[in-house]
Design brief:
The chain has four domains: about 180 residues, no CATH class; about 90 residues, no CATH class; about 100 residues, Helix Hairpins (Orthogonal Bundle); about 160 residues, Heat Shock Protein 90, CATH 3.30.565. About 55% of the residues lie in helices and about 15% in strands. The strands form four sheets. The chain has a five-stranded mixed beta sheet. Strands 2-1-6-3 form a four-stranded antiparallel beta sheet. The longest helix has about 55 residues.
Amino acid sequence: MGIRGRLLLLVLAIAALSVVLTAIVVRRVTSDQLSTQVSENRLTVDSINIALNEFALTATTWAEANEIVALLSKQYGTRVAVVDLDGNILVDSAQILEGEDRPLPAFESGFIDPSIDAFGIEIPEEVEAQWLVEEEFEQCLLSQGVDPAWFIDDLAFFEKIADNLSSDEIDRLAAVADFCWQEADGGLFIEESGVDESFLDGEPGFGPSAAMLEPALLFLGESGEPGGVLDSSIDYRMVLSLLAIGTVATMSAYLLSRRILAPISALTRAAQEVADGGRPEPVEVVGDSELSALAVAFNSMGSTLRNEEEARRRLTTDIAHELRSPLQNIRGTLEAAQDGVRELNLDLVESVHEEALLLQHLVDDLQVLALADAAALHMDKESVSIRDLLESVVRSHSDRAAEAGIQLSNNDASERAEDSLVIGDQMRLRQVFSNLVDNALRHSTSGDTISLETELVNKGKQRLVQILVRDTGEGIDEHFLPQVFDRFSRADPSRTRGTGGSGVGLAICQKLVEAHGGTISVTSRIGEGSCFIVKLPARSETPI
């Protein structure tokens, strides 16, 4: 699986885990709060329902419920509406308090049943006793062949039917009622002279003989609210949240992966092009992230490869150039001898021998450079006296210097002999300073001086043996100084052999000095001469 797929899976896994953990925490934290809210809401519904059921037990019409409905609405802070079983609004606090007709909630919150057993309401003893008396009264009337409906607690109804009865019928009804009321141990219901007005105008009766209100539905709250009963949709919302978070996470991961993989893809293509032998254009660097740093490093690598390839091409060209001259000389000399142009004698052999030595010297120098580049240059390290080494170099070049009219000297500024001691390969170090003196002799003329100076210097806590090879020759142009240690590099761009040398001597010096843990540098001005500075760790600073 690629980086993009793994990144997508990782982001989705983190998102899903976050949702699950959040859901667990939310459910645990809110569980008690939801339970409390449901309990309080149920308690409110039950309280309102009981209050209206108690009202219904003592009322004859729902029109009388306006006062209690308004009171309950204010007390519990919710809309209270009573609706009959056909859906007709009987009483509504919104109409009473605000004068507005608003839609009802989708579901009812309770059921109002004005029966004795509704909600287990506790009936007062005096009310229950009166119900029993009324029950006995009704049973007595039935035993006398009189319909109890004649004696319902409704004055208007009684007066209406009384108008259609004769006085004898009314007297008979009154006699039956009086008899049954005495049997029921109640007071006189109807006096001999007529109907007991106080009874007919009194409070409504209770029990089976009373005209109870019809059952009704109770609605709490407004349209769109849950009607006083909380519903739970946490699981549904959790699924939606998971889908939403998953979608956002997937899109984010995709965009992030594109942003990450785009430069990686560009780097991959460029690296493959390098592997195929090509030299791609630099990769675009955007921002300052780690990928940008990688792109910068890759571009730097590409630049280095291009430079090295160019250097290899130049090296090949330079080697071919350096080998061509002696080989042409050898070939020309031998062909001249074959054609009889030149006599085959010792002079001819000596000329060919000199050219062969030049080739051998060039090949040896190139081998030293190759070994130094591969860190495979063998060195026999020992304690070396720079003072004695430079003295030997001066002696070996003194005849050539005297012949050219150049003064060559060795000036040792160290106070003690041991101050010039270093650890290294004596033959390699001799090669370094021989090359430097040879280079100075080639670029000096009669009357110039070449001096070798040695002193002990301190660089921080480190002690160094510093050797200066100073001449008063022709000097080096400042624009050429940065390339002076490059292979086959000459201050004379025409590459004439007037000054001799293979063009790799200073490059060999740099490699050998660095192999000894030292440094080499140069300062020069045209017409004033040059000074090569070599610094090597003193013997006390270098482990044997």
